[in-house]
Design goal:
By secondary structure, the chain is an all-alpha fold. The protein contains eight helices and no strands.
């Protein structure tokens, strides 16, 4: 196996699988998407501009592949196996995972990329092809939905992202 593929597998395999699980929710689809992403990496001939560019490429390609699978004829007629996803996360996180999985795809992507992968809003906007203000809106709506679903605090200031400050707050 090519050393660059081994390095990429070691570095990005978990992230690619997590993104796939968030979108596809079926082990077989996750594995198909995972293999497709790394096959595209293997076929890629252009060098990356750096580590951040490479990571962004993996995220973009993974999101595109997940969208392709989600739109496929077969996938629209198959029900997801929730226990597949549940087995991949600790027991204490199941309620949060279920709430995140119920979010609309754009909000789910924004939450994952911002909170789990620690990308800033500008980077998420570039990766997803959205405007930064749209990403801020997705984060705001997602937090609002999650708070409602999980019984969060009502008096929390959730409009911090509109003034450009850190939306994690």
């Amino acid at each position: 196996m090519d050393l660059s593929v081994e390095r990429a597998l070691g570095k990005y395999a978990d992230m690619v699988r997590r993104i796939c699980f968030l979108h596809l929710q079926r082990r077989e689809d996750v594995e198909d998407a995972f293999q497709e992403v790394f096959l595209r990496y293997l076929e890629r001939s252009e060098p990356f501009d750096g580590e951040e560019h490479e990571k962004a490429w993996f995220i973009r390609v993974t999101l595109q592949r997940c969208a392709d699978i989600t739109r496929s004829f077969w996938n629209r007629r198959v029900l997801p196996l929730d226990e597949t996803i549940a087995a991949a996360v600790p027991e204490e996180s199941h309620e949060l995972l279920e709430a995140v999985l119920r979010l609309p795809p754009d909000e789910r992507d924004a939450v994952y990329l911002f909170y789990y992968e620690s990308f800033d809003v500008a980077s998420i906007a570039r990766m997803t092809g959205k405007k930064p203000n749209t990403v801020y809106s997705h984060l705001h709506r997602a937090r609002k939905r999650l708070r409602k679903q999980l019984g969060g605090w009502e008096d929390e200031n959730t409009d911090q992202e509109s003034d450009g400050s850190d939306p994690r707050g």
